[in-house]
Design brief:
Helices cover about 25% and strands about 15% of the residues. It is an alpha/beta fold and about 375 residues long. A nine-stranded mixed sheet has the order 1-2-3-5-4-6-7-8-9. It starts with a strand and ends in a 31-residue tail after the last helix.
Length: about 375
Amino acid sequence: MFLSLIYTTIFTSFAFAQQYAGRRVAVPELPAVTGAELAYFNIKNNNGGNVTMLNYFSFPNKKRQDTTKVQRAVLYIHGANGNSQGYFSAMYQALNKATQLNPDVNQESVALMAPYFTSTKNNIERSDIVTWNDVSWYIGANSIYPQGHNVSSYDALDQILQYFNDISIYPNMKEIVVAGHSMGAQMVQRYAAVGKDLFLHVPVVYWTANPSSFVWLNSQRPLTTDSCPTYNDWHHGLENYNMDYERTFVRTLGSLGVRLRYGSRHIAYARGLNDFGDYKDGCAPDTTGANRGARMYNFLDAFPADSGDTVDFIAGIGHNTGQMAASESGLNRLFLDNFYGNGTRHADIGERGPPTRPGKRRLEEFD
């Protein structure tokens, strides 16, 4: 078993009792969240060692879920500020809204998780919790603490997916959604591109909402690259891929192999049409567009969505994770689509808006 869970209370489920136990640690910096419990997941490194990862996990009515009743799991990955508690709350409130549309979709049938990619940026630098340097978690980098474990953030996602795919724990799971907003969406899109083939029996959807940039799947760009010699380096392109995670795959098969892998995934793109902001690291994003909106449009022009993908444009919403999750797109893609495992999905939402706000370019705070 690749992943394990221990709650802050005593196990009553035999299935949970068989999981390896992540070590419980005191984290006073993290607040309590309605509907959630702070859970400790045991993540294995490549050498057989174990580290503890923190997550906010479903705890409806202050009780653990009966996992035999769970049909869907939704992971919502936070942005650069590491606000996993806020992202769980956004999911929790959106799920309550989805219940009004379909009572079967509720806090007992949907497992919510907000993984916490602890980082030095968020001033939680712990030797007893898996921790990444700054925001390197979103590009698949290895952890820096506990020292010597070197766990890729993408390996952590792999193990979470394998946990929810475990039929002995979740025998009725119909779909897993890996969702992200802002920098979380950047992680989701890149993970969809280079993530391992895990051969899961449960289908996975990758919901990427308002990312500031994408990893491009070839060396061409819609704008000039003359002043950006590193424009095609990882994590904006696929050259000079220096992550340990899937290094042989990316370096050996290159952009063709990555495009084939990305094309095999179900991607759900979502853009708030009032989001004209920008947050970037380096010059590479400027070769793909002036802001978040233009970059999404240009990426979809270069790599059109497949028939199994969805593309939603949501009017009246900017760079706001709660509003995106509670939007029609959020409710459909996170909770309602394929809930019964019959393949039913709602149609794409909305039409493209302008790539920039008329008259000015707006810089927005990211979350």
